[in-house]
């Protein structure tokens, strides 16, 4: 079957960074659905996995792409929630091949029916970022999605990206006052369209800007951008006994004395944790995606696709990676359709 993958970890400008391939059809395990892939979202995890690193040549091609929308082709012997013909979306498992292939498999516990009101490309923009934003706010920061923290303040660093675009909307639904970062005019306009109450410039010190809005501290912080350059500012800004969640690895030591003095809780969020470790609550990702689909379909949540490329091939996936690595992407980039 057709696929796009890599055998070496190369810069995106190298034509071999991502290659058009022919690979065997995957075989579903008992809890798997076999999905005919119609669209794939592209995320920073794709660029990070593909990026140059000290690693041997892969003995078999590595298939990236952990944001999928498509149609169930077949189901494993123990699958109970889906049947062939169902239109689904999911974010996948980083320990298994991704969705940059004509067919892919995924455990049914991390799959859901796609929003009825979206096409495949729009649906493929959602799963990974929706799950990351949801788990960051409601599992790691322990906010109440039903409004139990209404009126409290949340600072989102990186509001214009895929995760931030959904984090803003989830937080506003939960009644929080949302402050988010943006630097360019178009990014600022985007986050305000999504419901951000205030926008500050991440290129300038955050405290003076936050204080100018009337906040001495913020109750919660979600860093969806980069941990190292914002760590000290986050610890300074968060209230005593507040919480911070981050999704990007730090590259150097993080000073913890002030965080300890304030009894700050710092949590990491990794969307792949449940699938990777087969946690007992793995099915929560199915339930989260079901809720997201319902909110999309009733019009209370906005889809986040901003750039659509096609068809699914190495050239278009390399272009998607280039755009993400430029650091200027707003919302989500999706590659859709196949050229037969």
TrEMBL record:
Domain Enoyl reductase (ER) as annotated: residue spans: 13-335
InterPro entries, alphabetized: ADH-like_N, ADH_Zn_typ-1, ER, GroES-like_sf, NAD(P)-bd_dom_sf, Quin_OxRdtase/zeta-crystal_CS, Zinc-ADH_QOR/CCCR
Lineage: superkingdom: Bacteria
One Pfam family, short name: ADH_zinc_N_2
Subcellular location: Cytoplasm
Keywords: Cytoplasm, Metal-binding, NADP, Oxidoreductase, RNA-binding, Zinc
Similarity field: Belongs to the zinc-containing alcohol dehydrogenase family. Quinone oxidoreductase subfamily.
Subunit structure, as described in the record: Homotetramer.
Protein name: Zinc-type alcohol dehydrogenase-like protein
Taxonomic path: Bacteria, Pseudomonadati, Pseudomonadota, Gammaproteobacteria, Lysobacterales
């Amino acid at each position: 079957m057709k696929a796009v993958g890599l055998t070496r970890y190369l810069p995106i400008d190298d034509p071999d960074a991502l290659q058009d391939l022919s690979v065997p059809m995957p075989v579903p395990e008992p809890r798997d659905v076999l999905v005919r892939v119609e669209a794939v979202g592209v995320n920073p995890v794709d660029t990070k996995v593909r990026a140059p690193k000290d690693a041997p040549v892969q003995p078999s091609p590595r298939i990236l792409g952990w944001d999928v929308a498509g149609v169930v082709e077949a189901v494993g012997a123990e699958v109970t929630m889906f049947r062939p013909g169902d239109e689904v979306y999911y974010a996948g498992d980083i320990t298994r091949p991704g969705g940059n292939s004509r067919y892919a498999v995924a455990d049914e516990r991390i799959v859901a029916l796609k929003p009825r009101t979206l096409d495949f490309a729009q649906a493929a923009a959602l799963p990974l970022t929706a799950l990351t934003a949801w788990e960051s706010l409601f599992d790691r920061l322990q906010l109440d999605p039903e409004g139990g923290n209404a009126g409290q303040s949340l600072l989102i660093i990186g509001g214009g990206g895929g995760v931030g675009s959904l984090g803003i909307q989830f937080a506003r639904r939960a009644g929080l006052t949302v402050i988010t970062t943006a630097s360019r005019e178009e990014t600022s306009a985007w986050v305000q369209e999504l419901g951000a109450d205030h926008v500050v410039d991440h290129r300038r010190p955050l405290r003076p800007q936050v204080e100018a809005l009337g906040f001495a501290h913020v109750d919660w912080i979600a860093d969806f951008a980069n941990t190292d350059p914002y760590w000290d500012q986050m610890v300074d800004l968060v209230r005593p006994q507040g919480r911070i969640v981050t999704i990007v690895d730090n590259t150097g030591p993080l000073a913890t004395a002030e965080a300890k003095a304030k009894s700050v809780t710092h949590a990491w969020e990794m969307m792949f944790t449940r699938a990777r470790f087969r946690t007992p609550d793995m099915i929560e990702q199915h339930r989260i995606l079901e809720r997201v689909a319902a909110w999309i379909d009733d019009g209370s949540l906005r889809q986040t696709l901003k750039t659509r490329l096609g068809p699914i091939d190495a050239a278009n996936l390399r272009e998607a990676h280039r755009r993400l690595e430029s650091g200027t992407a707003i919302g989500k980039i999706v590659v859709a359709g196949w050229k037969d």
